[in-house]
Design goal:
The complex is a heterodimer of chains A (235) and B (295). Chain A is of the alpha/beta class and 235 residues long. Chain A contains 11 helices and 11 strands. In chain A, the strands form 2 sheets. Chain A has a 6-stranded mixed sheet with strand order 7-8-9-4-10-11, sandwiched between helices. In chain A, strands 1, 2, 3, 5 and 6 form a 5-stranded antiparallel sheet that branches. Classes of the chains: A alpha/beta (235), B mainly alpha (295).
Chain lengths: 235, 295
């Protein structure tokens, strides 16, 4: 569904990505693991288009989207779930969700998607009229995921969904991510520092270090490989 | 007697303050969305003033009819200016966009000077006046007052009730968040710049109803400074804050005029300017986030 070929990007004169290539199969969860500063978030934001690629290619469902602007990618059914701090904090939870259904196709499916979101996150229905900024960290993360679902996507990318959350909440978030694959039929690419949680949820794993992919494989293989774990994941 | 005079001055101040408020909404909108300070603000108001003059003198139409025209002209200037300069500069250091707006202001002043010359020009649009007991208000000023309030209300409704307005609000809240919702953030930037200048140019039309000495291409600098004081009063990023800031500024300006004119050795008109900037300094020192900002 998503294919990345030797992607290079960075900020100003600083190169962050050093030609990683990856392939995300339809209906799977692919996880990119690695320590802080490995370039995982930059990888996602470059695929999404907020960070401009310097070279390399990005394909989505066979189409070259290397230089497609972000809002058009959302139109194609791709979106990104940023960390919780990228909510519209001054708006209510409900208003946040409605903003997710901004584009026309998403607006047509608004009721349907709103029901789906409220089934996945019943707490958001209770808190619908509360300001998003007043929610707990875990709930804010739920709102960002829910807002992404409101765009009616086929493919979503998650930027460190476990960051700053208590272990119990992390578990819940990952259960939800698996549900998104199995019950909603989404294809998912997520980047994480939390290796253990990803091992359980992911179908395929890439290990990233200083802008390179150092290893890839099925979670059980990565888990078994002592050298990969010690060298790059610190576990 | 002094009480009467003060009441009269305050009413005049409130009326002029509404126009000041509308004039500053554009400045605050542009700063709120793009974090760009439009130093050429007054020059854009001047363009509106000349549009009003031309509508009246060349076409013989009431100058208020120039308001929608000025809004469109302002938006066009906004889109052009955004495309040629601001778009590339918003990611750079603040000084570069500041210098660009300064330069654009100078260009506008010189272009208008080429067409109209640099002497003061005025027009006389009179519709009669009515008395409020303590003061007399010309109907033209009443129209400007009501018009400014109407524009402020329209902007408020657009921002809070329409889909396009909410999209812009979401960009102000979090531009990355807006992007992942499928909002074209670059377009929202261009649009808010254009609307901001549309508001500014059309406020220049209404302003001409308050300037007895007439207008000239260099009239703007004075209003740029006032707009900065008002924007700071209103909390810088909020167009509605700016509108109320304008009302307060109008009251203070006209109220202090009366105060200063009671000292025979002072020139009251100059003193009101002095007083405005003392006020700006004090606000910046004690509440740098602006007087009306809630957070």
């Amino acid at each position: 569904m998503l294919k990345v070929d030797k992607l290079v990007s960075g900020y100003g004169p600083m190169q962050v990505l050093w030609e990683p290539s990856l392939n995300v199969k339809k209906g799977t969860i692919t996880s990119v693991l690695g320590p802080n500063g490995a370039g995982k978030s930059t990888l996602l934001w470059t695929i999404f288009g907020t960070v401009k690629p310097w070279s390399g290619k990005i394909y989505f469902e066979g189409r070259d989207i290397t230089f497609t602007p972000p809002h058009e990618k959302v139109n194609m059914g791709m979106t990104l779930v940023p960390e919780g701090k990228h909510l519209f904090k001054g708006m209510t939870v409900y208003e946040n969700l409605i903003m997710g259904a901004y584009r026309k196709e998403a607006e047509e499916k608004l009721q349907e998607n709103l029901e789906l979101v409220y089934t996945l996150f019943p707490i958001l229905k209770e808190r619908a009229q509360q300001k998003a900024g007043s929610l707990s960290g875990g709930q804010q993360q739920m709102v960002t995921i829910a807002r992404a679902l409101m765009t009616n996507p086929k493919f979503i990318m998650l930027d460190e969904p476990s960051q700053g959350l208590a272990p119990k909440i992390v578990l819940e978030v990952f259960e939800t991510i698996v549900k998104l694959k199995e019950e909603v039929g989404l294809t998912i690419l997520l980047v994480e520092q939390n290796a253990e949680a990803s091992f359980d949820a992911a179908d395929y794993i890439y290990v990233m270090h200083e802008g390179h992919f150092k290893a890839e494989g099925r979670p059980e293989d990565i888990r078994k490989s002592k050298e990969v774990r010690e060298a790059y994941l610190g576990i | 007697m002094v009480g009467h005079q003060l009441a009269g001055n305050l009413i005049q101040g409130l009326i002029l303050g509404a126009v000041y408020g509308m004039a500053t909404m554009g400045l605050s909108l542009i700063f709120g969305v793009l974090k760009v300070v439009n130093v050429g603000h007054g020059a854009f108001m001047m363009v509106g003033a000349f549009l009003a003059l031309s509508t009246f003198k060349l076409l013989g139409l009431p100058p208020v009819l120039a308001v929608p025209v000025a809004f469109i002209v302002g938006m066009l200037l906004g889109f052009i200016f955004y495309r040629v300069a601001i778009k590339k500069l918003i990611k750079g250091p603040e000084l570069s966009s500041l210098l660009a707006t300064f330069a654009f202001g100078i260009i506008l002043e010189e272009v208008v000077k080429l067409i109209y010359g640099s002497e003061h020009r005025g027009y006389n649009w009179a519709l009669g006046k009515f008395s409020l007991g303590v003061t007399v208000v010309p109907y033209t000023k009443l129209i400007a007052f009501v018009g400014s309030i109407l524009v402020a209300v329209l902007l408020y409704v657009w921002f809070n009730r329409t889909k396009a307005g909410k999209a812009l609000r979401s960009v102000v809240e979090d531009s990355e968040g807006a992007r992942v919702c499928g909002i074209n953030v670059e377009w929202e930037y261009a649009l808010s710049f254009a609307i901001g200048l549309g508001l500014t140019v059309s406020s220049g039309v209404l302003l001409t109803l308050f300037i007895p000495v007439g207008i000239n291409p260099y009239m703007g600098g004075h209003y740029t400074l006032k707009a900065f004081v008002i924007a700071v009063l209103g909390g810088l990023e909020s167009p509605y804050g700016a509108f109320f800031g304008g009302l307060i500024f109008g009251l203070i300006e006209n109220g202090s005029y009366l105060l200063f004119s009671s000292f025979p050795s002072l020139e009251p008109f100059a003193m009101t300017r002095f007083f405005s900037f003392v006020m700006l300094l004090i606000i910046l020192l004690i509440r740098p986030e602006g007087l009306l900002k809630t957070k």
